[in-house]
Amino acid sequence: MGKKQKRGSKQSIVPHREAFMRMNFLFQASLAVLSANPSHPQLSRFYVHTMKNVGKRLVLRMDPGMKRMLCKGCDSLLVPGVTATHRVRAHRETHVVVKCLTCGNVKRFPTRPDYQLWSDNPANVAQPQTTGEPPPTPATSGQTTATLDHSRAQTPTHPSTSKSPPTTTVDKNSATDP
To answer: Under the GO molecular function aspect, what terms does this record hold (predicted)?
Structure first.
């Protein structure tokens, strides 16, 4: 049984706060160990591996900036000049190539000025709905959508009793624009 919260006390809004704090500590400890002794990154890799296991066990998402600093192949921190090389390439489009010096794994990040991470895009943030009405549909410019004309639609019947397959007609002329 947990302790009861008093009326005036603030309750934690973030679920699994202790796990996030532990993951943050392990990330900082890994960075500190690697900066203190860059010739032996094994302890740093162990801390990163433990951090990832904590996140997997509780199904927690890491910050994208933190994810970019971790190698998926060997769980080492990708520090430029120590455990990774960073190069700017422009084959398809200008991007940064990060190559892990431990396992050779490669990551590519676009460098377009208008590029925005999916998690940073305000359109992708869930908005709480205050009313019971469904969210508005996006407006289409000059496109018509086919709607089902229920007045002419036949009701489906059991296949053993009907001789012809049930059909549903779609009237494209009765489409409405929002």
So the answer is: endonuclease activity; hydrolase activity; metal ion binding
Rounded Cα–Cα distance for residues 175 and 24 (Å): 54
Contact 23, 54 (CB under 8 A): yes
Could you report the per-residue pLDDT of 99-127, keeping only the tens digit for each?
999 999 999 999 988 888 887 888 887 77
Q: And the tokens for 73?
A: 């192949």
Q: Which residue, 64, 67, 76, is CA-closest to 101?
A: 76
Cα–Cα distance, 165 to 102 (Å, whole number)? 63
How far apart (Å, rounded) are the C-alpha atoms in residues 101 and 107?
12
The percent of residues above 90 in pLDDT, for the chain, comes to 49
CA atoms of 111 and 88, how far apart (whole Å): 9
Rounded to 5 degrees, φ, ψ at 45 are -65, -35
Gap between the Cα atoms of 2 and 11, Å rounded: 13
| Per-residue pLDDT tens over the stretch 37-67 | 999 999 999 999 999 999 999 999 999 989 9
pTM for the model stands at: 0.62
What residues form DSSP beta bridges with 108? 97
- What is the pLDDT at residue 74? 95
